[in-house]
Design a protein that fits this description.
It is a single chain. With about 240 residues, the chain is mainly α. About 50% of the residues lie in helices and about 5% in strands. It has 13 helices and 2 strands; from the N terminus they run ααααααβααβααααα. It has a two-stranded antiparallel sheet. Helix 2 runs parallel beside helix 4. The relative contact order is 0.12.
């Protein structure tokens, strides 16, 4: 359990509120108990188990009969880690459990709700550090509880332009920032609240946004549709990368 917890912290997954599915916890803990400490074997295990966790988040593997499927995954991954199998584990089979396409990412809802895909997308946006837009702090176990769900394109700003709630409360329109940063951005247009951060330089702001899978110029264009397309593409590329 300790090693599995440490592994999740390496992925910047710290609490239940950002966990896409808790089914992974049981096989993950059991699998880490079988991994030798240090060396190439641990490195290979980390590679395989990282792929396992993120595929569990981004596929429908555990949408039903999760107890049975998690047992199968444990057995197949155990054999793979032990070098006793060359069979591709079912959870790694794209033809059976495909990763989400761009259109699915664009319609995924607000990650504060208990839905798998939105939470997976938020978790992935934390994976590269999710540096705060204003104070530049990296997300961590000690500060995750102080972060708030921020609308990148503010609710009131989008509503004034005729967007409906279902098009505003989207995972792609969400980032976790500190409560102070959230208050300073309020209902301002993205171009306005990001301009207020420019005292640290454009490159630094771009770096902070990139850690959330956000392209600065697409955010500050104040064009919501363009931004959603851009972030969906960034998110999709990151999913393909982390899922191997």
């Amino acid at each position: 359990i300790r090693r599995a917890t440490e592994f999740l912290r390496e992925q910047n997954i710290y609490d239940n509120q950002r966990l896409a599915t808790d089914v992974v916890l049981y096989p993950l803990a059991a699998l880490w108990s079988k991994v030798s400490d240090g060396g190439d074997a641990e490195g290979e295990a980390r590679f395989i188990l990282k792929k396992y966790v993120w595929r569990a988040f981004f596929t429908e593997r555990y949408e039903k009969t999760s107890a049975t499927r998690s047992l199968v995954d444990y057995q197949e991954l155990s054999a793979l880690l032990a070098g006793k199998s060359v069979v591709t584990p079912k959870i790694f089979d794209d033809s059976v459990f495909p990763l989400p396409e761009l259109e699915e990412l664009k319609t995924a809802g607000w990650p504060k709700r208990r839905d798998r895909l939105p939470r997976a997308m938020l978790a992935l946006s934390l994976n590269k550090g999710a540096f705060d837009f204003a104070d530049g702090s990296e997300v961590s176990q000690t500060n995750i509880g102080k972060r708030e769900y921020h609308h990148l394109f503010p609710d009131a700003w989008l509503s004034s332009k005729g967007f409906e709630s279902k098009d505003i409360y989207l995972a792609l329109n969400c980032a976790l920032v500190t409560w102070k940063t959230n208050r300073t951005m309020a209902a301002k247009a993205p171009s306005v609240y990001m301009h207020e951060r420019m005292c640290v330089g454009e490159d630094e702001i771009s770096r902070r946004l990139k850690s959330h899978l956000i392209i600065k110029n697409d955010l500050t264009s104040d064009n919501y549709e363009t931004f959603l397309d851009s972030r969906a593409s960034e998110m999709h590329a990151a999913i393909l990368d982390i899922c191997g």
